[in-house]
User: Fold this.
Amino acid sequence: MRRKIISILAGVIAFTLGGQLHAPAQDYPTRLIKMVHGFPPGGNVDIIARLLANEMQKGLGQNLVVEPRPGLAASVAAEYVARAEPDGYTLLTVASAHAAAPALYKNLKYRPVEDFDWITTASFYPFLICVRKDSRFQTLADLLKEAKAKPGSLNYGSAGVGSILHTTVELLSNVTQTKFTHVPYRGEAPALTGLLSGDFDFIAATTGPATIHVKSGEFRALATTGKTRWTELPDVPTVNEAAGLKDFEVISWTGLATTAGVPKPILGRLYAEMQRVIRVPEVREKLQGMGGEVRGIEPSEMRDLVSRQMVLWAKVVREQNIQAQ
Assistant:
């Protein structure tokens, strides 16, 4: 009898504890959610993060605050999220630069794949290789021809060492066996201003902010880094078309991740919410207006995407001897 009572009590305790353990996932969210990213305010990722957060809080019923933590190719923000409590209240708006950071910074205090639960992507977008309107380069072939004849004589700007704008040009340099001189800035916006001022020869910039300058006539777009032409600027050739580089493709992306170990019901809620958000016409229109192909992928696909790009950027950094500052 006594054993039976103990058994019943044990079952009640286990049931109660089990209910308590699952309650947070069932009730999520019950308080403010922090959405962190690793880029300066006002940039492409910051704009996307705020766009997503504003719509997500409607569906989740809680406020989302966007917190930029720029530095070290977005690894400062990634480390912060990797170390957070795995409760779904600290999210990471992650971009493709996440995959380049491990190649540049050997002493990262987090594992770039394993320390995160991957949720989904919001948009994918190519880059535009641009020069100023008065540049002597009319085509990408012209630019590459001079680069081969005068190694290191042409300068390009980027959002900083390790930024995807930096590694994209280094990949172009790698596959064409040319050499350029890098002029790093603290963010894409000041780099674009640098090109406007004539401080360097060319830039690989995200389609959103670059297109504004192309359409205004301030920039000339020599090529897009996607495998197909970008619909917003259909007259701009691909790198393949402009320079005969058949396998060249750099597509950036922005998505959502969180700390590894978050309960699966919470991850499921966040995945479903993101899928809802990118179907909202106003959100979709704004993402497309920034040059993005709006597309949400499965968490496992996102994990594989990061892993593949890590391999690519490790090769580029090694062969181009890129040194983090």
Summary: Confidence is low (pLDDT under 50) at residues 2-23.
